[in-house]
Design a protein that fits this description.
381 residues, alpha+beta, ten-stranded antiparallel β-barrel, 10 helices, 18 strands, 26% helix, 37% strand, globular
């Protein structure tokens, strides 16, 4: 089996297993964390064994945090630059190499039979690449580059996987809104709503849409943060792999730049739907959760495998992005086949094609196979 195939196979296995990663570092050891709870907002009277956090269990290489001056963070505060340029620099400050941690906790239940869900914790290392920057549009691609500790002294083989993508558009004319049940609809934006604001578009690992939200960047002294309006979102893998009692997350998303990296905060309601775009009449709100993702700058981490992967597959994924963009430009509604996505996830097909066309430039054959793959998941219902 080729090294490249091993990387892709490992990535798929990890993706299917809920993207659960746990990393040890010289600063933090998972073994030492077992003695104390990391949750301030805990369910104090619940059985401890039932509330053990689920998620990452794998051990990775030691990580060294970057404690040098963050020039990207400093650049946001350069005197006499425009508010627009401050916004741009804040977005671009999210690029680079990071140790990431993901924490989610269900804090409130709204049904009589509600039982607290296990908290979720996961770790990883990923590099955020600037894919495109045209001034009022910036595209950032996340690539996971993981090294798992081996049982011997040999250097562990890397696991490389294309992760999520975030695009930022200044004063957009329209956005795509999630309506539940793998349905997205285009919505026009009036000038009052979009003036001075940026839309963040978040995409799955296969570049299919997740959600779009509009918000305003605010800069006050050493503080730069963007907050979205209320947004509907599909269940992430950490949830749909274990939950079937609700259909959509409705909440807000906040990105804040720090001297050591950046953080993403979520405040979500877990909601049941009757049909596309419609909540159930009785008790639609199941629970509330809060989430925090920390991106901490690191050094001396070998990102070469991620750089190589992105260089070799970049033309392929550029064509994938173009195909999705064309679909959304030409259609008011996008409906994906839920059963087919469940039976044969789209990311597996596209990851396989990315491997097939690795190192190749854009060709008609590549474009045709991408369109055929994506079209096979579209539903006419």
């Amino acid at each position: 089996m080729s090294k490249q195939l091993i990387l892709v196979t490992t990535a798929l296995i990890l993706m299917i297993s809920n993207l659960g990663f746990a990393y040890e570092s010289k600063e933090i050891s998972l073994e030492n964390k077992k003695e104390t709870s990391q949750y301030t907002f805990a369910w104090s009277f619940s059985e401890d064994s039932n509330m053990k956090p689920r998620g990452g269990t794998t051990t990775g290489e030691n990580i060294i945090l970057d404690n040098s001056e963050n020039l990207k963070w400093k650049a946001i505060r350069e005197p006499q630059i425009s508010k627009f340029e401050q916004d741009r620099r804040a977005i671009l400050a999210m690029s680079g190499g990071y140790r990431t941690s993901f924490d989610f906790l269900e804090t409130v239940g709204f049904t009589k039979e509600h039982q607290p869900a296990q908290p979720y914790q996961s770790w990883g290392t990923e590099f955020v690449y600037v894919v495109e920057d045209t001034g009022n549009f910036i595209s950032l691609q996340h690539i996971l580059v993981m090294y798992f500790q081996a049982n011997n002294d040999s250097k562990p083989a890397p696991m490389v996987m294309k992760h999520w993508r975030q695009d930022w558009q200044y004063e957009p004319e329209s956005i795509v809104t999630f309506q539940g049940f793998n349905n997205w609809q285009k919505r026009k934006i009036n000038s009052k709503e979009t003036s001075g604001n940026w839309a963040q578009s978040v995409y799955q690992v296969d570049d299919s849409p997740r959600y779009q939200a509009i918000g305003l960047w605010k800069h006050t002294g050493n503080y730069s943060s963007w907050a979205s309006g209320e947004t509907w979102r599909p269940l992430p893998r950490r949830e749909f792999s274990v939950r079937s009692d609700y259909h959509v997350l409705i909440g807000t998303n906040k990105h804040t730049i720090t001297p050591n990296g950046w953080v993403q905060e979520e405040d979500n309601l877990k909601v049941k739907l009757e049909s596309v775009g419609s909540l159930t009449e009785e008790a639609p709100i199941v629970a509330k959760e809060i989430g925090l993702a920390r991106y901490e700058r690191i050094i001396e981490h070998d990102w070469t495998p991620g750089n190589d992967y992105w260089k070799k597959t970049g033309p392929f994924w550029k064509n994938v992005r173009a195909t999705w963009s064309e679909l959304m430009q030409n259609q008011q509604t996008l409906q994906l086949d839920s059963q087919k996505l469940k039976d044969s996830p789209m990311f597996m097909k596209l990851f396989g094609l990315a491997d097939q066309f690795s190192g190749a430039q854009s060709t008609q054959d590549m474009q045709a196979k991408i369109k055929q793959a994506i079209s096979s998941y579209l539903s006419s219902d």
